[in-house]
Amino acid sequence: MLDKKSPQYKRSMKCRRRKIADEKVKLKDYRYELKYRKRLVYNCSQLIIPAIYIIRRPKYNRVIAKWRFMGKTQKPIHLGTMVDVGKMSDTDLKERAIRMIRNRFSQPLDTLTLKWIKDENNRLNDWCERMGYKIRRG
Question: In the chain, what are the domain boundaries?
Fold first, then answer.
């Protein structure tokens, strides 16, 4: 502890203030980098997990499944007509779409299940809560 009457006091305080200012700048950079890396991890993880959406089109008498994988919207899958499958629940239709995807594609989509998709989405949401990452939707 320096005495205020000491000749080194002003120089010492100036040096400490400069160090604190430098550390504040570093902390700001680290915060920005952490925020950027969280967004990068979230977006990459989200791209890897397939997303399946069921669309009923009564005007055209069709039920289709749109799906996204690796950041690209894939070709829609025709699940049937409104008369045949229109009354089925979304979960059953998603299972049906996943079965078609498994038949058409090779690894890693040949082992795809709806339970795995839900588990991975839940795991990603838990990670977001732990890391304090706010998901921007919309």
Answer: 11-48, 50-131
